Each structure stands twice: as structure tokens, then as C-alpha cells.
Amino acid sequence: MRKTLISLLFVAALPSLALAAPEGHPQRPAERHGQLPFHRLDLNKEQQKEIHKLIGTQMKNRHEITQRYLDKLPEAERKAFQNELTANQENTDKAIRALLSTEQQKQFDERQLKAKEKRAEREEFLKWKAEREQQKN
């Protein structure tokens, strides 16, 4: 059980680690999204499209695998896992915000609010979808 929890924490931390850049090395937009290795391959549009599709599938599969293991955890450990992820995200957001100018902070706050609203809409949709599926059965 302990190994599973550690593995889940590691998987959850990977996106944050992927965004980290060496100090003094500015990130280009392609680097922030992990596309730099593909950028250097001089791909045509069709190749870019297919790779994008493959990466999307991989991300979906990773989420499903993570969720499958989370579902096996007792409720207390699942709640602790979620709380730790939330606290980590909040700490990162505070640290990022502290680095920004006043104008940048306003933009950051607006983006955070929009993202929060989108997540709430998504949760509501998924809840509605699950209820609809139950009604069909």
C-alpha cells in the first residue's frame, strides 16, 4: 500500500517537474509543453497532429491508471493524498504569485479564477453524465 501511495505521489508530481527549467535558461513555449524534442525533428503537420494525438492518449491513459490505483486506497488515504496535492498546488501558486509584478498578479489571479470555474463546470458535467448513465440502467 505504501509503495502504491509513493508511486501515485511521484506520478502526480511529474507534470510539475516537467515544467522546471535549469536556472538562467528561459523557456520557449514549446519547451514548457514538452514539445522541444519533437520541434527539433522538423515534423510536418500530419506528423505533429499524430504525435499530439498520441500524447493526448498517453495522458488520458496515465490519468485512468492513476485513478484505478487511487480507487483501491482507503478513503482516509485518498483524502490525505488529495489534501497533500492541493496544499502543494497552493504553495506553488503562492510562490509564483510572489515573483510577479502587480499587473502580472492580476492576470495570474484572473487565469486562476477562470481555471477554477472550468474545473467546476467539468465536475458538474461529469456528475450530470454519471446521473444520466444511472438513469439509463
What can be said about this structure in brief?
The chain has 137 residues and is mainly α.
Describe the structure.
- This protein has 137 residues and is an all-alpha fold.
- It has two domains: 1-12 and 30-99, no CATH class; 101-137.
- The chain has helices at residues 2-19, 29-32, 36-39, 45-72, 75-99, 102-136.
Write the H/E string, N to C. HHHHHH
Our measurement of the CA-to-CA distance between the termini, rounded to an integer number of angstroms, reads 34 Å
**How would the global form be characterised?**
extended
How many domains make up the 3D coordinates?
2
Regions with little confidence, pLDDT below 50 for 5+ residues: 21-28
What is the overall pLDDT average? Answer: 80
Number of H/I helices: 6
Structural class: mainly alpha
Radius of gyration (Å): 19 Å
Query: What is the total tally of β strands?
Result: 0
**Helix proportion of residues, in percent?**
over 70%
